[in-house]
Amino acid sequence: MNSNTFVYRLLGKRTVKQFVLEKAIFLVLLLLVVVISIINPRILSVRVMRDVLMMSSTKIIMALGMMFVILTGGVDLGGGRTVGMAAVISASMLQTPDYVRRFYPDLGQVSLLIPIVIAVIVGTLFGMLNGMIVAKFKVPAFIATLSSMLIIYGANSIYFNMAPNNSQPIGGLRADFTFLGSGSIGFMPVIIIFAAFVSLIVWIVLNKTVFGKNVYAVGGNPEAAAVSGINITKTLVGLFGVCGFLIALSGVLEAARTGGATNNYGNGYELDAIASCVVGGVSTTGGVGTVSGVIAGVIIFSFINYGLTFVGVNPYWQNIIKGLIIVAAVSFDIRKYVKKN
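Below the sequence we write its predicted C-alpha coordinates.
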Protein backbone atom coordinates (compact mmCIF):
# COMPACT_ATOMS: atom_id res chain seq x y z
CA MET A 1 0.00 0.00 0.00
CA ASN A 2 1.54 3.33 -1.05
CA SER A 3 1.26 6.51 1.05
CA ASN A 4 -1.43 8.09 -1.17
CA THR A 5 -3.67 5.06 -0.82
CA PHE A 6 -3.19 5.07 2.96
CA VAL A 7 -4.13 8.77 3.22
CA TYR A 8 -7.17 8.24 1.00
CA ARG A 9 -8.40 5.34 3.12
CA LEU A 10 -7.73 7.28 6.30
CA LEU A 11 -9.64 10.37 5.17
CA GLY A 12 -12.21 8.73 2.91
CA LYS A 13 -13.64 11.18 0.39
CA ARG A 14 -12.40 14.19 2.29
CA THR A 15 -9.29 15.94 1.04
CA VAL A 16 -6.29 16.59 3.25
CA LYS A 17 -7.17 20.31 3.13
CA GLN A 18 -10.67 19.63 4.43
CA PHE A 19 -9.31 17.40 7.19
CA VAL A 20 -6.82 20.07 8.29
CA LEU A 21 -9.57 22.71 8.25
CA GLU A 22 -11.89 20.60 10.38
CA LYS A 23 -9.18 19.62 12.86
CA ALA A 24 -7.04 22.79 12.67
CA ILE A 25 -7.46 24.03 16.24
CA PHE A 26 -7.11 20.48 17.57
CA LEU A 27 -3.86 20.05 15.64
CA VAL A 28 -2.55 23.41 16.84
CA LEU A 29 -3.23 22.46 20.46
CA LEU A 30 -1.53 19.09 19.98
CA LEU A 31 1.46 20.97 18.61
CA LEU A 32 1.42 23.18 21.71
CA VAL A 33 1.38 20.04 23.87
CA VAL A 34 4.45 18.76 21.99
CA VAL A 35 6.24 22.10 22.45
CA ILE A 36 5.53 22.11 26.21
CA SER A 37 6.76 18.50 26.43
CA ILE A 38 9.99 19.41 24.64
CA ILE A 39 10.61 22.42 26.90
CA ASN A 40 10.18 20.30 30.03
CA PRO A 41 10.00 16.53 29.41
CA ARG A 42 9.23 15.92 33.11
CA ILE A 43 5.63 16.86 32.37
CA LEU A 44 5.26 13.46 30.70
CA SER A 45 5.88 11.63 33.96
CA VAL A 46 3.25 9.24 35.30
CA ARG A 47 2.63 11.45 38.34
CA VAL A 48 1.94 14.53 36.23
CA MET A 49 -0.29 12.61 33.84
CA ARG A 50 -2.24 11.28 36.83
CA ASP A 51 -2.62 14.81 38.22
CA VAL A 52 -3.82 16.11 34.86
CA LEU A 53 -6.40 13.33 34.57
CA MET A 54 -7.66 13.98 38.10
CA MET A 55 -7.98 17.71 37.41
CA SER A 56 -9.66 16.91 34.11
CA SER A 57 -12.25 14.62 35.68
CA THR A 58 -14.51 17.31 37.15
CA LYS A 59 -14.01 19.43 34.03
CA ILE A 60 -15.04 16.49 31.83
CA ILE A 61 -18.30 16.15 33.76
CA MET A 62 -18.91 19.90 33.53
CA ALA A 63 -18.06 20.02 29.81
CA LEU A 64 -20.41 17.13 29.09
CA GLY A 65 -23.16 19.11 30.78
CA MET A 66 -22.26 22.19 28.75
CA MET A 67 -22.30 20.03 25.63
CA PHE A 68 -26.06 19.53 25.90
CA VAL A 69 -26.67 23.28 25.71
CA ILE A 70 -24.07 23.97 23.01
CA LEU A 71 -25.65 21.23 20.87
CA THR A 72 -28.68 23.51 20.59
CA GLY A 73 -26.55 26.51 19.62
CA GLY A 74 -26.73 27.98 23.13
CA VAL A 75 -24.36 28.38 26.05
CA ASP A 76 -24.57 28.32 29.85
CA LEU A 77 -22.67 31.33 31.22
CA GLY A 78 -23.75 30.47 34.76
CA GLY A 79 -21.96 27.12 34.81
CA GLY A 80 -19.02 28.30 36.89
CA ARG A 81 -21.26 29.81 39.54
CA THR A 82 -23.29 26.60 39.66
CA VAL A 83 -20.03 24.78 40.44
CA GLY A 84 -19.41 27.15 43.36
CA MET A 85 -22.96 26.82 44.65
CA ALA A 86 -22.87 23.01 44.61
CA ALA A 87 -19.43 22.99 46.25
CA VAL A 88 -20.57 25.29 49.08
CA ILE A 89 -23.86 23.47 49.68
CA SER A 90 -22.26 20.03 49.88
CA ALA A 91 -19.18 21.12 51.83
CA SER A 92 -21.19 23.12 54.38
CA MET A 93 -22.96 19.98 55.59
CA LEU A 94 -20.06 17.53 55.37
CA GLN A 95 -17.53 18.89 57.87
CA THR A 96 -15.97 16.79 60.63
CA PRO A 97 -17.64 17.13 64.07
CA ASP A 98 -14.42 18.41 65.70
CA TYR A 99 -13.70 21.14 63.15
CA VAL A 100 -13.44 24.52 64.92
CA ARG A 101 -15.29 26.67 62.36
CA ARG A 102 -18.22 24.47 61.45
CA PHE A 103 -20.80 25.94 59.08
CA TYR A 104 -23.57 24.22 61.08
CA PRO A 105 -22.21 23.83 64.65
CA ASP A 106 -25.20 21.81 65.84
CA LEU A 107 -25.62 19.62 62.78
CA GLY A 108 -25.16 15.92 63.48
CA GLN A 109 -23.50 13.34 61.25
CA VAL A 110 -25.67 13.36 58.13
CA SER A 111 -25.61 10.73 55.43
CA LEU A 112 -23.03 11.45 52.73
CA LEU A 113 -25.69 11.34 50.03
CA ILE A 114 -28.06 13.94 51.49
CA PRO A 115 -25.92 17.08 50.91
CA ILE A 116 -24.81 15.76 47.51
CA VAL A 117 -28.40 15.13 46.42
CA ILE A 118 -29.49 18.58 47.66
CA ALA A 119 -26.65 20.24 45.72
CA VAL A 120 -27.39 18.48 42.43
CA ILE A 121 -31.15 19.05 42.78
CA VAL A 122 -30.60 22.78 43.23
CA GLY A 123 -28.32 22.80 40.17
CA THR A 124 -30.87 20.82 38.15
CA LEU A 125 -33.71 23.18 39.10
CA PHE A 126 -31.70 26.24 38.07
CA GLY A 127 -30.90 24.51 34.80
CA MET A 128 -34.55 23.68 34.14
CA LEU A 129 -35.49 27.29 34.93
CA ASN A 130 -32.98 28.44 32.31
CA GLY A 131 -34.51 26.02 29.82
CA MET A 132 -38.02 27.27 30.57
CA ILE A 133 -36.97 30.89 30.06
CA VAL A 134 -35.27 30.04 26.76
CA ALA A 135 -38.14 27.87 25.49
CA LYS A 136 -41.18 29.81 26.69
CA PHE A 137 -40.01 33.40 26.51
CA LYS A 138 -37.59 32.98 23.58
CA VAL A 139 -34.81 34.64 25.56
CA PRO A 140 -31.36 33.87 24.08
CA ALA A 141 -29.54 31.30 26.19
CA PHE A 142 -26.59 33.56 26.91
CA ILE A 143 -28.91 36.25 28.34
CA ALA A 144 -30.96 33.77 30.39
CA THR A 145 -27.86 32.11 31.81
CA LEU A 146 -26.12 35.45 32.38
CA SER A 147 -29.05 36.41 34.59
CA SER A 148 -28.98 33.09 36.42
CA MET A 149 -25.22 33.47 36.89
CA LEU A 150 -25.80 36.68 38.86
CA ILE A 151 -28.70 35.17 40.80
CA ILE A 152 -26.81 31.99 41.69
CA TYR A 153 -23.70 33.88 42.77
CA GLY A 154 -25.75 36.32 44.85
CA ALA A 155 -27.76 33.57 46.54
CA ASN A 156 -24.65 31.47 47.15
CA SER A 157 -22.81 34.45 48.64
CA ILE A 158 -25.72 35.17 51.00
CA TYR A 159 -25.70 31.52 52.10
CA PHE A 160 -21.91 31.52 52.42
CA ASN A 161 -22.04 34.69 54.56
CA MET A 162 -24.49 33.25 57.09
CA ALA A 163 -23.42 33.28 60.73
CA PRO A 164 -21.34 31.75 62.15
CA ASN A 165 -19.44 31.16 58.90
CA ASN A 166 -19.39 34.81 57.82
CA SER A 167 -17.78 34.15 54.44
CA GLN A 168 -14.88 32.09 55.83
CA PRO A 169 -13.51 29.33 53.55
CA ILE A 170 -15.19 26.02 54.33
CA GLY A 171 -12.68 23.38 55.42
CA GLY A 172 -12.40 20.33 57.62
CA LEU A 173 -14.34 18.10 55.24
CA ARG A 174 -15.12 14.52 56.18
CA ALA A 175 -12.86 11.75 54.94
CA ASP A 176 -15.71 9.84 53.28
CA PHE A 177 -16.46 12.96 51.23
CA THR A 178 -12.88 13.83 50.25
CA PHE A 179 -12.37 10.17 49.29
CA LEU A 180 -14.65 10.81 46.31
CA GLY A 181 -12.26 13.45 45.00
CA SER A 182 -8.82 12.34 46.11
CA GLY A 183 -9.14 8.68 47.09
CA SER A 184 -8.22 5.65 45.02
CA ILE A 185 -9.47 2.14 44.49
CA GLY A 186 -6.28 0.22 43.92
CA PHE A 187 -4.23 2.34 41.50
CA MET A 188 -7.27 4.10 40.01
CA PRO A 189 -8.41 7.45 41.47
CA VAL A 190 -12.11 7.40 42.34
CA ILE A 191 -12.74 10.72 40.62
CA ILE A 192 -11.50 9.33 37.29
CA ILE A 193 -13.88 6.39 37.71
CA PHE A 194 -16.70 8.89 38.28
CA ALA A 195 -15.79 10.79 35.12
CA ALA A 196 -15.62 7.58 33.06
CA PHE A 197 -18.99 6.40 34.37
CA VAL A 198 -20.68 9.75 33.70
CA SER A 199 -19.14 9.83 30.21
CA LEU A 200 -20.58 6.40 29.46
CA ILE A 201 -24.05 7.40 30.69
CA VAL A 202 -23.99 10.62 28.64
CA TRP A 203 -22.91 8.67 25.55
CA ILE A 204 -25.81 6.26 26.02
CA VAL A 205 -28.29 9.12 26.55
CA LEU A 206 -27.17 11.02 23.44
CA ASN A 207 -26.79 8.02 21.14
CA LYS A 208 -29.28 5.42 22.31
CA THR A 209 -32.31 7.33 23.62
CA VAL A 210 -35.11 9.31 22.02
CA PHE A 211 -34.22 12.29 24.21
CA GLY A 212 -30.66 12.30 22.88
CA LYS A 213 -31.80 12.16 19.28
CA ASN A 214 -34.22 15.00 20.01
CA VAL A 215 -31.37 17.12 21.40
CA TYR A 216 -29.42 16.73 18.15
CA ALA A 217 -32.56 17.37 16.10
CA VAL A 218 -33.48 20.55 17.96
CA GLY A 219 -29.90 21.78 17.68
CA GLY A 220 -29.61 20.95 14.00
CA ASN A 221 -32.91 22.42 12.82
CA PRO A 222 -35.49 23.44 15.44
CA GLU A 223 -38.17 24.25 12.86
CA ALA A 224 -37.90 20.83 11.24
CA ALA A 225 -37.81 19.21 14.68
CA ALA A 226 -41.05 20.95 15.66
CA VAL A 227 -42.73 19.89 12.42
CA SER A 228 -41.65 16.29 13.02
CA GLY A 229 -43.50 16.30 16.35
CA ILE A 230 -40.66 16.91 18.80
CA ASN A 231 -41.73 18.88 21.87
CA ILE A 232 -39.20 21.73 21.73
CA THR A 233 -40.07 23.14 25.16
CA LYS A 234 -39.83 19.78 26.89
CA THR A 235 -36.52 19.01 25.18
CA LEU A 236 -34.96 22.38 26.05
CA VAL A 237 -36.08 22.21 29.68
CA GLY A 238 -34.77 18.66 29.89
CA LEU A 239 -31.37 19.34 28.35
CA PHE A 240 -30.81 22.47 30.45
CA GLY A 241 -31.78 20.40 33.48
CA VAL A 242 -29.24 17.73 32.55
CA CYS A 243 -26.66 20.47 32.09
CA GLY A 244 -27.40 21.87 35.56
CA PHE A 245 -27.27 18.39 37.09
CA LEU A 246 -23.88 17.53 35.62
CA ILE A 247 -22.34 20.92 36.39
CA ALA A 248 -23.57 20.72 40.00
CA LEU A 249 -22.16 17.20 40.26
CA SER A 250 -18.81 18.49 39.05
CA GLY A 251 -18.99 21.19 41.75
CA VAL A 252 -19.57 18.58 44.45
CA LEU A 253 -16.62 16.52 43.25
CA GLU A 254 -14.44 19.63 42.97
CA ALA A 255 -15.08 20.38 46.66
CA ALA A 256 -14.23 16.75 47.48
CA ARG A 257 -11.06 16.92 45.36
CA THR A 258 -9.74 20.15 46.86
CA GLY A 259 -10.98 19.54 50.41
CA GLY A 260 -12.78 22.85 50.75
CA ALA A 261 -15.09 25.41 49.16
CA THR A 262 -15.82 29.13 48.89
CA ASN A 263 -18.48 31.11 47.04
CA ASN A 264 -15.89 31.93 44.36
CA TYR A 265 -15.27 28.30 43.48
CA GLY A 266 -15.75 27.60 39.79
CA ASN A 267 -15.33 31.21 38.67
CA GLY A 268 -14.44 31.09 34.98
CA TYR A 269 -14.85 27.31 34.72
CA GLU A 270 -17.61 27.78 32.17
CA LEU A 271 -15.10 29.32 29.74
CA ASP A 272 -12.82 26.30 29.95
CA ALA A 273 -15.83 24.02 29.46
CA ILE A 274 -17.01 25.95 26.40
CA ALA A 275 -13.51 26.02 24.93
CA SER A 276 -13.03 22.30 25.56
CA CYS A 277 -16.34 21.49 23.86
CA VAL A 278 -15.56 23.57 20.79
CA VAL A 279 -11.99 22.27 20.57
CA GLY A 280 -13.45 18.77 20.85
CA GLY A 281 -15.71 19.32 17.84
CA VAL A 282 -19.02 20.47 19.36
CA SER A 283 -20.32 23.04 16.90
CA THR A 284 -21.45 26.40 18.28
CA THR A 285 -24.08 26.43 15.54
CA GLY A 286 -25.72 23.37 17.09
CA GLY A 287 -26.45 19.77 16.17
CA VAL A 288 -22.88 18.44 15.98
CA GLY A 289 -20.69 16.97 18.71
CA THR A 290 -19.49 13.75 20.32
CA VAL A 291 -18.71 12.65 23.86
CA SER A 292 -15.27 11.37 22.85
CA GLY A 293 -14.45 14.72 21.25
CA VAL A 294 -15.39 16.60 24.43
CA ILE A 295 -13.25 14.30 26.59
CA ALA A 296 -10.26 14.77 24.26
CA GLY A 297 -10.81 18.54 24.25
CA VAL A 298 -10.90 18.72 28.05
CA ILE A 299 -7.77 16.61 28.52
CA ILE A 300 -5.78 18.58 25.96
CA PHE A 301 -6.97 21.91 27.37
CA SER A 302 -6.19 20.79 30.94
CA PHE A 303 -2.75 19.57 29.88
CA ILE A 304 -2.02 22.95 28.31
CA ASN A 305 -3.22 24.81 31.43
CA TYR A 306 -1.08 22.59 33.64
CA GLY A 307 1.81 22.65 31.20
CA LEU A 308 1.97 26.43 30.89
CA THR A 309 2.24 26.68 34.68
CA PHE A 310 4.72 23.79 34.72
CA VAL A 311 7.10 25.57 32.32
CA GLY A 312 6.76 28.88 34.17
CA VAL A 313 4.51 30.94 31.90
CA ASN A 314 3.13 34.03 33.64
CA PRO A 315 -0.54 33.52 34.70
CA TYR A 316 -1.53 36.73 32.91
CA TRP A 317 -0.09 35.39 29.67
CA GLN A 318 -1.93 32.14 30.30
CA ASN A 319 -5.23 34.05 30.26
CA ILE A 320 -4.27 35.66 26.97
CA ILE A 321 -3.37 32.28 25.47
CA LYS A 322 -6.65 30.73 26.69
CA GLY A 323 -8.60 33.64 25.22
CA LEU A 324 -6.87 33.22 21.87
CA ILE A 325 -7.60 29.48 21.92
CA ILE A 326 -11.31 30.14 22.53
CA VAL A 327 -11.69 32.71 19.75
CA ALA A 328 -9.64 30.56 17.36
CA ALA A 329 -11.74 27.48 18.14
CA VAL A 330 -15.00 29.32 17.52
CA SER A 331 -13.62 30.96 14.36
CA PHE A 332 -12.59 27.63 12.87
CA ASP A 333 -15.95 26.14 13.87
CA ILE A 334 -17.88 28.93 12.12
CA ARG A 335 -15.65 28.64 9.08
CA LYS A 336 -16.36 24.92 8.86
CA TYR A 337 -20.09 25.65 9.02
CA VAL A 338 -19.86 28.28 6.27
CA LYS A 339 -17.84 25.93 4.07
CA LYS A 340 -20.46 23.21 4.40
CA ASN A 341 -23.23 25.57 3.41
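Residues 232-258 form the longest helix (27 residues).
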